[in-house]
């Protein structure tokens, strides 16, 4: 089972609200009713999800904390181990080419994949079986988030505006009302290769 796969038993109940905040661009932002400091990272509120790996695997869903951990620590989406080769390059297996930032830098929401797990990932995932692209990069840095965007409504309520939107980390107003589900990273010195 891929390391980043979500499981049925990892779902957590939560309630979103809009709260006053001195840190927010316009003085208010999206929050949880019972917010804690670790709910925020890179200016965004993060989707709450357990990491217990209990219940039935949800093949098409990604576990938010494990995806973020893979991106920040350059861990393999399949086995959870390092994806950095002896020469210092990081391996990626993607179903399609990465996006491009406004500055021309490639970016992705797909966690890296160690060289040893590339054949396993291709065999397990139908999307990767026929169209997989293999890359290496010299470095990866947080660039943005994939998030559901909300807007404030009467009574400090939050109303869903858009689902699964890419939001750069410098889009402060949008981040104030983002519920992040995946971390985006920009990829330095990205090179197409064969595994």
TrEMBL record:
Q: What is this protein called?
A: Uncharacterized protein
The species is: Nonomuraea rubra
The beginning of the lineage is: Bacteria, Bacillati, Actinomycetota, Actinomycetes, Streptosporangiales
């Amino acid at each position: 089972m891929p390391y980043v796969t979500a499981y049925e038993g990892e779902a957590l109940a939560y309630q979103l609200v809009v709260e006053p905040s001195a840190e927010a661009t316009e003085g208010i932002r999206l929050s949880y009713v019972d917010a804690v400091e670790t709910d925020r990272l890179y200016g965004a509120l993060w989707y709450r999800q357990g990491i217990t790996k209990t219940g039935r695997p949800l093949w098409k869903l990604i576990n938010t904390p494990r995806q973020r951990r893979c991106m920040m620590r350059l861990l393999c989406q399949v086995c959870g181990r390092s994806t950095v080769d002896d020469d210092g390059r990081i391996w990626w297996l993607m179903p399609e080419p990465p996006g491009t930032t406004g500055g021309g830098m490639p970016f992705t929401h797909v966690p890296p994949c160690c060289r040893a797990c590339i054949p396993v990932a291709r065999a397990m995932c139908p999307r990767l079986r026929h169209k997989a692209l293999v890359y290496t990069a010299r470095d990866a840095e947080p660039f943005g988030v994939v998030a559901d965007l909300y807007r404030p409504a009467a009574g400090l309520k939050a109303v869903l505006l858009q689902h699964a939107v890419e939001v750069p980390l410098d889009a402060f107003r949008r981040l104030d009302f983002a519920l992040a589900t995946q971390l985006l990273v920009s990829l330095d010195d990205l090179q197409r290769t064969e595994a």
